[in-house]
């Protein structure tokens, strides 16, 4: 399914703390990955899916397979950022998201990413198809 088939987008706020910044006082580049992970987790939660329940009930996990990030403008201590998460592709065993991280005060885009996550078996960590109930639920969003 392509991005035109989905309409579910979630905005998730993230406040920048000292621990998120580097020696120059800007958000350390790797922390954008953490912010985006939270955005994807909260996106799933908003749709009624908890990752720990997916592991326990369905025996599956999500793992990052590919990430492409563009850093566009720095964020600094105490900025409030908004992480916008949008599902753009639903495959048989993977999900692809676009995510924008903007400063809430002025809407400036700080970082943009495309993340592909794969569904894997919780024990073997080998790729597997998305559970039917999950795939069906995500097609509706």
UniProtKB/TrEMBL annotation:
<dbReference type="InterPro" id="IPR006683">
    <property type="entry name" value="Thioestr_dom"/>
</dbReference>
<feature type="domain" description="Thioesterase">
    <location>
        <begin position="25"/>
        <end position="108"/>
    </location>
</feature>
<dbReference type="Pfam" id="PF03061">
    <property type="entry name" value="4HBT"/>
</dbReference>
<comment type="similarity">
    <text>Belongs to the 4-hydroxybenzoyl-CoA thioesterase family.</text>
</comment>
<dbReference type="InterPro" id="IPR050563">
    <property type="entry name" value="4-hydroxybenzoyl-CoA_TE"/>
</dbReference>
<dbReference type="GO" id="GO:0047617">
    <property type="term" value="F:fatty acyl-CoA hydrolase activity"/>
</dbReference>
<dbReference type="InterPro" id="IPR029069">
    <property type="entry name" value="HotDog_dom_sf"/>
</dbReference>
<dbReference type="InterPro" id="IPR014166">
    <property type="entry name" value="Tol-Pal_acyl-CoA_thioesterase"/>
</dbReference>
<keyword id="KW-0378">Hydrolase</keyword>
<dbReference type="InterPro" id="IPR006684">
    <property type="entry name" value="YbgC/YbaW"/>
</dbReference>
<protein>
    <submittedName>
        <fullName>Tol-pal system-associated acyl-CoA thioesterase</fullName>
    </submittedName>
</protein>
